[in-house]
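Hi, here's the filled form for the chain we discussed.

Project: internal
Contact: R.S.
Residues: 167
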Amino acid sequence: METRIGALTDQAPADPAATDDMLATQPVGYWTGLTHAAVTRHLRDALAKVDVTQPQYWVLNRVNAGPTPPSREETVAQLTHLADGPHDIARVIDQLLHRAWLRIDDGQRLHLTEAGEAARARVRDLVTEVRAVVHRGISDEEYVAALKVLRTMVANVEGDGASGRPA
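And the returned structure, exactly as it came back:
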């Protein structure tokens, strides 16, 4: 029986050994979940070797990112959706303050210390190496195409479905 895309399609069971001709029938949730778990595990294992967590790196980058230093509350609000729980980012800020990688000014704004900036730069280099491993054999064009497909799938189920962008 021929399987057609865009029409009625028989969904094949998730199969990590599926051949290329069967990939179109594979469940995207299985593959995106598997990818997320594998990439996150690989990154977190690499960060653990330098005693840094992924959420710590998120906070260091966020504090460094803009022209105006963020407050604790702004940082928590901006990063909590990425974290494993609602209190994780606040805890990370406390950890980084304890390590003296962050400081709080009189206006309650967070700033990287010299040690914090040095740590952020070291971890950025490590994350760049991890990204190179994850992207090995994948061109920038292929990567962009994959992300565009995923973005359209999100729009299809959460947005208007027509524009390829969430509504």
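Let me know if anything looks off before we file it.
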